[in-house]
Amino acid sequence: MKAGFVNIFGKPNAGKSTLLNALIGEKMAIVSPKVQTTRHRIKAILNEPGYQIIFSDTPGIIEPKYKLHEKMMQAVRSSLEDADLALLLVDAREPVGESHEIFQSLRLKAPAILVLNKTDLLKKPAELDALIAFYKSQPYVKDVIGISALEKKGLETLLEKILTYLPEGEPFYQGDDLSDLPMKFFVGEIIREKIFQLFQEELPYHTTVLVQAFKEKSTLVKISADIIVQRETQKGIILGEGGKMIRQLGTLARQDIEAFIGQKVFLELFVKVRPKWRDNDLYLREYGY
Ligand SMILES: Nc1nc2c(ncn2[C@@H]2O[C@H](COP(=O)(O)OP(=O)(O)O)[C@@H](O)[C@H]2O)c(=O)[nH]1
Ligand SMILES: [Mg+2]
């Protein structure tokens, strides 16, 4: 039996959350074309005969600008500590070596596989060669592989490579749970994803979601959630004219939550203004950061 923690690191937008979802075969982590969508460390468990892999998605590595960012980088650090294997994810279109400094600064103790993602977007396969050559010569890299997380290409080879570095051991988690995080967390994340989809520019970055209630009734699940923003004007935007935007948000989120939990959902959303919540320790703790 093999078992261990395989943690995914990389710059914002490299495709870390997409890769986690593709490896697990379920949507565990929200994805968006915007940077800094992922704020937590999200563990997802892959149970197969002969092995258990606990994958962790992490926030993209950035220079912290406010306290929320510091919490996000703490999530990255905790993933560094328990990694048995690191997947260092790079957008294959980036200039050779652009992520190199970040990876060096991680001071990894675990072995690392360098994963070049988004190869579907390269025009010529030769474009990969320079990247592969560069990273193969770095001491912290054990192996290099090109994949497309979006098109699920190269994932079987990646899994084989992962298994060669996975330690022998008994499973860390029993049962068939996909994650160590509660359902409330995933519901909040789905709502956050829709906010990233529907609203432009800075608004999603000023927003968080707190699921207040998740009650299983006989025929449906009743969920109520607060959408937290920093300013009154932002509340107005989320509500929209005559409540148009929040209704649309509610519908999109409800559909995905129903698909995720496989049950009918009644979803209630409230918008609350909490000035400067991103820099307030008490609020950050209350909202799960
Ligand atoms: N074309 C292409 N797009 C990808 C691939 N992987 C991720 N993306 C896209 O890149 C964007 C960022 O992905 P996400 O997983 O949120 O990146 P993260 O910030 O590293 O977690 C999203 O729009 C994804 O659909 C890939 O292999 N090919
Ligand atoms: Mg992400």
Structure description:
By secondary structure, the protein is of the alpha/beta class. The chain has 2 domains: 2-165, Rossmann fold; 183-286, K homology (KH) domain (GMP Synthetase, Chain A, domain 3), CATH 3.30.300. Helix content is 35%, strand content 23%. The chain contains 9 helices and 9 strands. It has helices spanning 16-24, 67-82, 100-105, 126-136, 155-165, 183-198, 232-239, 244-261, 281-286; strands at residues 2-10, 42-48, 51-57, 85-91, 112-117, 143-146, 208-216, 221-229, 265-273. The strands form 2 sheets. The chain has a 6-stranded mixed beta sheet, with helices on both faces. It has a 3-stranded mixed beta sheet with strand order 7-8-9. The longest helix has 18 residues, at 244-261. 33% of the residues are buried. The model has no long low-confidence stretch (mean pLDDT 94). The structure holds guanosine-5'-diphosphate and magnesium ion (MG).
Topology readout:
Elements: E1 2-10, H1 16-24, E2 42-48, E3 51-57, H2 67-82, E4 85-91, H3 100-105, E5 112-117, H4 126-136, E6 143-146, H5 155-165, H6 183-198, E7 208-216, E8 221-229, H7 232-239, H8 244-261, E9 265-273, H9 281-286
Parallel strand pairs: 1-3, 1-4, 4-5, 5-6, 8-9
Antiparallel strand pairs: 2-3, 7-8
Helix pairs in contact: 6-8
The structure holds guanosine-5'-diphosphate and magnesium ion (MG).
Guanosine-5'-diphosphate (GDP) is lined by residues 10, 12-18, 31-33, 37-38, 60, 117-118, 120-121, 148-150.
